[in-house]
């Protein structure tokens, strides 16, 4: 087995079971280790620490498969996939996820001890995203295992996330197993239908992580004039309407997303006449609305990732503060702000501070009535806190 020998003291994170080894922690590595090959991680005094996948092009040079001295092979990966599936099954029982949606995350990479592999289940179709050299090395085996362990027959690959570049991997999109009659795939969530574009939608097609938060929006929306910023394909918009909103204005910069959002409203028994869709930049439009003295009872802010890592946190903080400050101004007294950050580089405590700063500068009195996070099919390993990325707050502006 090829090996990487760590610098003295750099085994500490592995002893806490964190799965990443950065290039700077490595003292010496065997030559000619291939992309994604399995390597042993040894301490400076040659003690076995873990077995990992090798990423020669990435700062994250190795990701742990196992802390045991055991073979990493098809049967090893089968155990990991079984464990991930077993972890979802309690969520699917009773009043759980199973009755709320036919689509959920089946495998969430490091959080499920399968670094680099994301698998989302949309009805009978699996959408696979391979993000690292290690998951790419084992991709065909993983695909076979996924079919064997789920009994399904179709896997569509959406390995086109930017992070692949850091691993020296080209984007890949296409059928991996089975066949698809259409790239537009219908799913149900909380008794609403959504068409998901598996081929060109964001991530694997739909923001499954916001499932429970969409339901909360539905519960808060009755009789409200709602502004859904960064609406994508209308997840929050449809739920606000289903919850009895008086009107919903949805803004996104993507014409394609808005077209699908309109289609999604029409798919359901919802009042399309209460909706308005605006293609544009949220930062600019919120300013314009402020200048026009417009106001809303409920504002949803679900922007894209401003800070993938902590290094961009400061710039991201300015972006979050800007839109939240404007939203507090546009909210009527007694109004509700539902605000999110999916930036890994901004943690929940920092996000709350940013929102407090926004309220202060907007000159409003507001309270947090609920803390939100990613849905439970996107679990967070206690050893890998980086798996927690989505945080949200429901705030009341004082009446
Ligand atoms: N709330 C959505 C997901 C939002 S994803 C859901 O639950 O499904 C973020 C969205 O922001 C994307 O659709 C993207 O097109 C849009 N976007 C990114 N930058 C934008 C900007 N400056 N103004 C408006 N929309 C933007």
Describe the fold and architecture.
There is one protein chain. By secondary structure, this protein is of the alpha/beta class. It has twelve helices and 20 strands. It has helices at residues 12-15, 74-92, 97-100, 133-137, 139-150, 163-166, 211-220, 235-242, 255-267, 282-291, 313-330, 348-362, and strands at 3-6, 20-22, 26-29, 38-42, 48-54, 60-66, 103-108, 117-122, 125-130, 154-159, 172-177, 184-189, 192-197, 225-229, 247-252, 275-279, 296-301, 331-341, 366-373, 391-397. The chain has a seven-stranded mixed β-sheet, sandwiched between helices. It has a six-stranded mixed β-sheet with strand order 2-6-5-4-1-3. Helix 2 crosses helix 5 (139-150) and helix 10 (282-291) packs parallel to helix 11. The longest helix has 19 residues, at 74-92. The radius of gyration is 22 Å and the shape is globular. The N and C termini lie far apart (66 Å). The model has no long low-confidence stretch (mean pLDDT 96). Residues 207, 210, 230-233, 235-236, 251-254, 257, 281-283, 302, 304 line the site of S-adenosyl-L-homocysteine.
């Amino acid at each position: 087995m090829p090996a990487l020998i760590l610098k003295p003291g750099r085994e500490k994170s592995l002893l806490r079971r964190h799965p990443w080894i950065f290039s700077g922690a490595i003292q010496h590595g065997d030559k000619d280790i291939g992309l994604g090959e399995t390597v042993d991680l040894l301490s400076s005094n040659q003690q076995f620490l873990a077995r990992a996948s090798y990423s020669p092009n990435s700062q994250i040079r190795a990701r742990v498969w196992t802390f045991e001295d055991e073979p990493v092979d098809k049967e090893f990966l089968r155990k990991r996939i079984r464990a991930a599936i077993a972890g979802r099954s309690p969520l699917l029982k009773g009043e759980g996820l199973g009755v709320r949606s036919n689509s959920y995350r089946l495998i969430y990479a490091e959080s499920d001890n399968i670094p680099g592999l994301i698998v989302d289940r949309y009805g009978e179709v699996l959408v696979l995203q391979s993000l690292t050299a290690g998951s790419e090395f084992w991709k065909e085996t993983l695909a076979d295992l996924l079919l064997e362990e789920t009994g399904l027959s179709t896997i569509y690959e959406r390995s086109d996330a930017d992070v692949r570049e850091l691993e020296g991997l080209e984007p890949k999109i296409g059928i991996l197993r089975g066949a698809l009659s259409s790239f537009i795939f219908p799913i149900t969530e909380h008794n609403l239908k959504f068409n998901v574009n598996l081929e060109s939608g964001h991530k694997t097609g739909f923001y499954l992580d916001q499932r429970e938060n969409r339901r909360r929006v539905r519960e808060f929306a009755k009789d409200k004039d709602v502004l859904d910023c960064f609406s994508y394909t209308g997840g929050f918009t449809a739920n606000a309407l289903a919850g009895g909103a008086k009107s919903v204005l949805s803004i996104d910069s993507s014409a394609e997303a808005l077209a699908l959002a309109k289609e999604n409203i029409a798919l359901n028994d919802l009042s399309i006449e209460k909706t308005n869709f605006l293609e544009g930049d949220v930062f600019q439009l919120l300013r314009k609305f402020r200048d026009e003295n417009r106001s809303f009872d409920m504002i949803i802010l679900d922007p894209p990732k401003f800070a993938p890592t902590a290094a961009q946190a400061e710039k991201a903080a300015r972006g979050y503060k800007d839109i939240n400050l404007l939203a507090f101004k546009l909210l009527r007294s007694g109004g509700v702000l539902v605000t999110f950050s999916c930036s890994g580089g901004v943690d929940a405590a920092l996000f709350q501070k940013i929102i407090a700063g926004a309220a202060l500068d907007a000159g409003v009195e507001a309270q947090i009535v609920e803390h939100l996070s990613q849905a439970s099919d996107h679990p967070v390993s206690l050893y890998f806190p980086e798996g927690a990325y989505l945080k949200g707050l429901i705030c009341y502006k004082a009446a």
